[in-house]
Amino acid sequence: MGNFTFEETNLLCIYNTGSRTGLIEALTEMRGELSPEEAELRVLTDSALGKLQTMSDTEFAELELFPDFDE
């Protein structure tokens, strides 16, 4: 179910809208604003989007999207 990395989880927490489709839309919009210098963030966003698109809304609801900035 997703297998999100630590960095992906934090990204999801930052852009979480409360729904899987809303989060996909928010990340897609953010991705469109990235500059060429932000290639690493683009790769991270693409990876997270791919995982979100393959999971169900039920699986998304089971995610615990609380940022852990201490790690």
From TrEMBL:
Q: What Pfam families does the annotation carry?
A: TTRAP (PF14203)
Protein name as annotated: Transposon-transfer assisting family protein
